[in-house]
User: Fold these one by one.
Assistant:
Number 1:
Amino acid sequence: MMSAILAAPILISAGVSVDVARIFTTRLAFQQAVDSAALAAAAKQASSGTVDSTLAQKFMSANAAGASATPINFSVDTDGTLVATATFQVKPLMMGIVGYKNIPVTVTSRATAVAVTKLDQVTLQITGAQGAYSKDIYFFTRSSSGAILSQTLVLKYRYNGSTKSYTPAIGGSTTLNVGDYASYGYRMDIYVDNTYKGKTTNVPIVTHYSDDADAAKWTRSSGSCADASGIQVQWEDGGDSNYMDFQYTQKCTQTSKKVTDVRLIR
């Protein structure tokens, strides 16, 4: 008789345990769905300034079965973090016997766009150039994969054994539009004419990039582009070691913020 009396509560207890485990598993699935919606909404907000709830809803529905009919709500914290909240109804198996037809499960996700300061323009002032070899100097930008996106000739230096010429003239300022980029720097093409006649054809060409792994061997710098006086840079072309073969000052004239990543906060 005792077994019969205890059987019902034992079965109900076991059923409730199964329901709780099921609710927990379902909640994890819905959490991932809301996370994906929050990331999509934060990225859209960062690029356009508005939250696209329709787009977010599609992401949520695609990442959890049963999520398509559940509305997702958005708010923005004081620090700009986007908060996504959705309440799902989970149907229990055994708990329905004791009156629980639906169990509400509320899921919240916070996401924010990460921005970095990037250059719109740089102002370049070439303060000196010399050396026994003629050379061309370029300002370049790269993509995140390292591919060259743009190259701009900023100095053509020529030496014919007795006279030197500079295009443009030393001392002037040039403002360059940087455009979209992952990194930027300078490239030096050195025409190694050991007759010292300034030949630029049929002679070896040595190329150095300011972002090469061993760039410290031929470049020196002080200051920062963001400083009021800019960054002062000196290059060596390999003829000697005085680091006076290309000298310039660079200032950042404008900055812009570009979203590079969207991350979950909690």
Note: The chain has a mean pLDDT of 83.
Number 2:
Amino acid sequence: MRYAIRLAYLGGNYHGFQSQPNMKTVEGTLLEALKKVGWITDPKKAYYNYAGRTDQGVNALCQTIAFNTEKKLILPALNTNLPRDMRCWAYAQVPESFDPRRDALLRTYKYYAIYEGENLRQMKRAASLLKGTHDFRNLCTPKPNERTVRTLFESKIEKRGDILVFTFASKGFLWKMVRKTVTAIREIGRGKKPLQYVKELLDPNYTPRGGVSPADPEGLILFDVKYPFDFQVDEVSKKMFLDALYKNYIRGRTRAQVCSAMMSELEKAK
């Protein structure tokens, strides 16, 4: 049987999602736990795969992994072999052909940042210009020969008290695309760049001097990955991660907002 599992984690203690030699990563930690409970022995033979990579420090609420196993899935059993800042909290039985990366219908990222007096109106206008299909070459770190055209179905900013919440939704994102986009929008909000800067960055023939630096990873969450099916929430596992988020809540204002957002969404999950 093939299963898809929702994985939530706080990325601050890991060198990104993908396994790396001699590095503590989300994937490496997860695979150790999966092997320990006997759900998989060889990731390749289990056709193990995941929805996408996240960088060092980036968080996830709905990272999705898939694998084949003959074992019965009891999520709390897996979670007792995971650290407190990482929990699998929902699952679904899926077709043998299911690929969590290729079959994703929509990915949503949220970025949380402390408001520093930026011009919110200008930032909202900048975000609206990014919506649609564009070449994001100047707002990512592309791989060799990678196609950099993407479609943003959602690109918006909200101000909640003294926190800015950026939301971006697309079928697929490029490496560092969200974090560089946040930087560019905030530069406009701070008056360091004109609104025209967005159109310049979306021109593949334009090369910004010095490039665009990615925003700090701590505020970024892989918030949702949609598929043409629903997941069954395991209430015990959900509560385990809610408890862990609550204990992390006091670690700085940005971290508090990230944890609060993840807690709020998890509490709504049925």
Note: The first strand starts at residue 2 and ends at 9.
Number 3:
Amino acid sequence: MNGVLVIDKPAGLTSHDVVNRVRRILQQRSVGHLGTLDPLATGVLPLVTGNLTRLAQFYIAAEKTYEGVIRLGFATDTYDAEGEPAGPAQIVKVSLEELRELAACFRGVIEQMPPPFSAKKIHGVPAYKLARKHKDVPLKRVQVEVKEFEILGVEGDRASFRARVASGTYLRSVAHDMGQHMGCGAHLESLRRTGLGEFELADAHKLEEVEGAANIAQVEEMLIHPRKLLPQFPSVTADEETAARIRTGRTVNLPELSRARQVKVFYGQRELIAIAARVAGTLFHPKIVLVAEPTPQHL
């Protein structure tokens, strides 16, 4: 099966746990995900299967949107609710206006320290492996972009928020740093990803839905329509001769897309056969070939 299946990840599972379960359901090894979610987090986890795992390279910098809750009053060693408290809880009284003013400091391009319990590599070793052994985790501040960060409401010591961030941004670190600024400590209590690139919660399916499918045909009905993938690239439908050339990695002439830099090439309505890059003028060369052998046309 070649496709993109969006899972609404439940709390308590790692992204790799979800991938493994879907591999078992599909009886297919070639399954990957397009962006890790922490075990605590829920929401949009797009999975790519079969030949479409090669599309992952185009989603490395995909924008992500989230909703969540920050708990004020104490920090944790993981910067989220799964960690150990870094000190006793404090009573916090803060207004919505005060938090919104503070949140403005975290919008835009900012310097951020990744959490010690993260997948950031230190001399080839993930930081969380060092942190679990109580070893020093010499991480460095990195530049990230928070495109939107809005405090939606405050109830006691909990603040709900909505955020839109560039790839590589840790909202756990945002919560932790807000607590540092306030002098009371804070951590990320819950997080739900509502979007990644073009994928939204409306596209997502529960793992139970996928497991409950009677056959592969029912799972295929859950896949994202290939025409919706990578909307930043224009689409072209190749005739049989052009498709045959692309499948064998040869340059083709696509006069209708003379200004595009990269394009999606389809055979029929649903068969995405390649991503092609413009060489010069109207000549395009397949950057990646997704279907090397012709299959019956799906209309």
Note: The two ends are 18 Å apart (CA to CA).
Number 4:
Amino acid sequence: MNNPDCNTEHRKGQHLTPEERHDIEVHLKDGWSQYKISKHLNRPYNTIKNEIVRGTVSLYHGNVKRYKAAVGEQVYKDNRESSTKNYRCLETALFLKYVVKQFKEQGWSLDACVGYALKNQLFQRKETVCAKTLYNYVDLGLLPIKNIDLPEKLRRNTKSKKTRQNKKRLGKSIEERPETIQLRMEFGHWEIDSVIGCKYESEPAAMTLVERMTRESIWIKVKNHTAEAIDEALKNLLSQFGERYPQIFKSITGDNGSEFAGLSALEGKGVQVYFTHPYSSWEKGTNECHNKMLRRFIPKGKSISDYSIDDLLFFADRINGLPRKILGYHTPEELFEKQLDQIYAA
């Protein structure tokens, strides 16, 4: 009687059955090669080869090696019992408590907590879990942190980006930027942007600059969202570094917003200026990423007039004090100060 449910097709990754292990044992006794058995069972060659290795036992004081289906089946079952996921919440309780504290009190990312703790040997490796596991714990509700508390997780945009053509350009294109800037090989190259709260003409704004190599952020409150206000703020900023500012501000990259209409004038002061393609502010992604961090403190729609100059300085200090994986879990502040020490000591 034919079995209508019989099917020799195997789903990719499906485990061997006891019947197939029995076939392997019989055909090996008949002298079949591993390749011929794999074709007969419609299985990958490596699957058959690995199964034979796992199920082979020594007989007659080690003089004979033979595959046994029962042994292969038992090894398979033993491996399956130990393959279940184990949560290490209890044995890593102190580390998890440290992560929650740093996340809630210092605003650190989960990855920064792991990397900083290991880098500074606050915990042994066996006492910690990796960043991916921490995010899994958040998903499972094993930590007093929710996905909505993670500032980046719910707002990542995976849409492709397109460059629009035939739009206004305020100066040299980002395509002309040297490779040393693109690859972050040299200190002193910045990206600039502006952040607004309420959309009123007289509404104050924040001018944001980020140094590409160290990720140091400078956030300055300006009186309004105009080119004049940005130019004045930049002039004051450069003057704070005295005669050494050309070594600290070697280039600035902005977008084609009207507030940067006067940015090219800085080239007369020894600062190279570049602009992203129109409607492609994502090309200065370092600054865009840090603007998202600023939104942790100043949500969209919240008037910047509610915040003082000192407030923005405090917000920037908090962000510059965050350990970053991309910086080897150093902070932007550490690396920026190191560069300044080298420049002023020369």
Note: Residues 18-81 form one domain.
